[in-house]
Amino acid sequence: MPSTEPPSARKRVAAVHARLAAFAGAVVLGLAAIGFARAGEWAQGIFARFIAPHAWLPFIVTPLMFAGVVYLTRRFFADARGSGIPQVMAASHVPERYTQGHLISLRTSAAKLVGTLAMLLVGGSVGREGPTVQISAALMTAVHRWLRVPVTAGVIIAGGAAGVAAAFNTPLAGVAFAIEELAAAFEPRVAVLGMATVMIAGLVSLGISGDYVYFGVVNGALPLKAMLMIAPVAGISGGLLGGLFSRALIAVSLRRHSRLAWIGARPVWFAAGCGFVVALTGWATGGLSSGTGYETTKQLLAGHDASLLFGPAKFVSTLATALCGAPGGIFAPSLSVGAGLGQVIALVFPNDHVGAVILLGMVGYFTGVVRAPMTAVIIMMEMTADRTMILPLFATALIADAVSAAVSPEKLYHALAGPFRSENPRDA
Predict the structure, then answer these.
(1) I need a surface site. Which of 94, 299, 357, 377 has the fewest CB within 10 A?
(2) Global pTM exceeds 0.85
């Protein structure tokens, strides 16, 4: 029997349902992000307590876990590999097709969560922010399906943006990332939905975890003369190293060169080799290169010392972990590499605020990797509650973006999203 409601009434009801779905999805993904964060801390704690103290043990368990996770991911959960951000970008490209497959399904999200935790459990240099983006997009999509609300590109993008916000407690960065990376063709209605979802997810995180600042409050400032000298150094070095990281990851992930064909033929053995490299760098640095690097980065920002091997070792371990194709993000490890870079730059400028120089190293390298300068600046400001560094941060980010573009013309996540845009979402 056809509905007797006028079209305007049906539109109002549909709009109310859409808002309820967005609200419910934001609450659910906010809770999931908090749970994921705490599980990640538990996994890293297990590694630090039981595995890392035995120097020989990581050389066995880390390669075995890397190989096992990669085998299971490739065999049963192909769409859970890697960061998770390329999957969300691909899904938002044609939502009516990709949301019917495994790209942002709850099954894939569960595999992403378990795989990332398994990597952290054995000292893998992975972050949970990229995986949180994919998990959040999947949860938002699932809630909309359960409430029988159409899933659009805006819904997927809003879920992914809220994932960034909830993972780092940085709502503005979530919106910026949605604009800069997730939405290729941004529309005003997507912006409104994204901001509303990010706000709700942020309130959930705030209510449970409190009003915390991710890296703690950093009070750093640079005079104009120092800024004009340090920002170009941080921008050029960060853009160069970040661009090299991005180029290497794209080349290996997409098998751009014939000499890399053997990796596709022996992915499990390659993953075991990557695990051995991670174990070796962890042994050489006393465990500093393992996990996200959060604690060491926080100490450096607070003005404490760390081994000068931290930055280089973190670069190697993060690259090795990312190249193997296991689930796991690169956001937090990239910030740690940037902190190590800033530590080295601070040696050249000893008379300036060390925390401020490290911030510039972080934003320079992070921008060099992801090529999202606005997101990089906003995320650093929100994670440190420092508003005095906005000009040097922007200067560094813009320089790093230009240098990275010269080294690696393709943007990392855009290039990695390509393989997921196949005709059959299940085979992506």
Answers:
(1) 94
(2) yes
